[in-house]
């Protein structure tokens, strides 16, 4: 008997294989090293691709002179302001459209006809309305954030379990409390999906608007050094943008875990 | 206080724009401290009827009312088949939801919440979220939420149908113990005949297409301990009688699906 023994092995062990923690930094480190070596060996001219160390040292100069701070402050004010306005209005209108059938029937066609417009195309019009200055940039970001947040909030509201609404009404909730205590928390996971989506849009619109018409701001800085062909400082601006995007995403992720502990 | 269901009809328009009669000429009352069980095959409209009584659906004709209210605004507590606990609220917050919406002071909410959580045996789980609980424990919280508002009528829509057989047996026993303490008038919907005979003072058997009352059966057995040996024969007789009434309809329902 014993020589014909066949042990049955777990054939799906690869599904829960443990990966060491250093793996996540491995890719980036190798890429940076490779990049640095290529530049040091003068395989490409530094004008096209400066070495990471050169970028960092020129970036340090930018920081030391205080120039960078001006750009970052300008950009942050615009994006935070625009994002906050767009997200708040988007969530409120989304809740109303989702809850009221009348509002839904009347306004949803309006929303869907404006939604597909690439928002940056509206910048000249908005500048005409609001003048040059901070307002049109904040407005364009708010507009770009508003739509994805609104549409996600709307579909989040629609996906709230009907029995939960029935339960709330049975136990004495008013319409306002149904929205506040059932529909809003029920739609929150979907709302966050919209907020994350909108973060990318906001960054895109920020940079575009700053490239079109701005004195300060990361977008303006990148364009400026591009025109001067100072690639190191240009690349440093791009790196700051990447960092900003990452920070934005992490922040939203943190907020999501904070606000949705029941998931 | 009695609940009267009077001449209730319910008609729907189905997807093919045809009118379907879900309920026809439904008349019955629920007396104080009485458990009335609605039983019938799938598609007989028993959940529709419970929703009408619960104020979650309007009847096409007829009405449902409380009689002898002495100007008190009657309360309804519903236990849902889908349990319908708010996932973002802890057990305690779920249980006191109705009190919160009625503006009951915090101290009283805490006392009552604690009392009913204890009654359903969930002490120690007050701060757990629903997803951390098993199916049976979730439904205990659902029951506590309905009891907590001290309703004049308790509605239960197949509350244990999603539970496994063993848990269900335990929950049925516990429900009777709870009833013994609260003495609530109850309308209970089920498709399980054993459950109907075990819990009901009266069992209303519904037929399908249209949903009509086929028979109302008084269960003349003591409320507690119907599953004991000495009542086994009578229990089986009631169950057989009800099954006899439903069997044909249930087979028809199977063919349609």
From TrEMBL, chain A:
It comes from the Bacteria. Pfam families: BPD_transp_1. Belongs to the binding-protein-dependent transport system permease family. InterPro entries: MetI-like, MetI-like_sf. It is found in: Cell membrane. GO terms for cellular component: plasma membrane. This is NitT/TauT family transport system permease protein. It is a multi-pass membrane protein. The chain crosses the membrane at residues 21-38, 79-99, 111-132, 138-157, 182-208, 228-248. GO terms for biological process: alkanesulfonate transmembrane transport. Residues 72-252 form the ABC transmembrane type-1 domain. Keywords: Cell membrane, Membrane, Transmembrane, Transmembrane helix, Transport.
UniProtKB/TrEMBL annotation, chain B:
The keyword Nucleotide-binding applies. One of its GO terms (molecular function) is ATP hydrolysis activity. Residues 3-233 form the ABC transporter domain. InterPro entries: AAA+_ATPase, ABC_transporter-like_ATP-bd, ABC_transporter-like_CS, ABC_transporter_ATP-bind, P-loop_NTPase. SUPFAM superfamilies: P-loop containing nucleoside triphosphate hydrolases (SSF52540). Keywords: ATP-binding, Nucleotide-binding, Transport. PANTHER family: ALIPHATIC SULFONATES IMPORT ATP-BINDING PROTEIN SSUB, TAURINE IMPORT ATP-BINDING PROTEIN-RELATED. This is NitT/TauT family transport system ATP-binding protein. It comes from Ureibacillus acetophenoni.
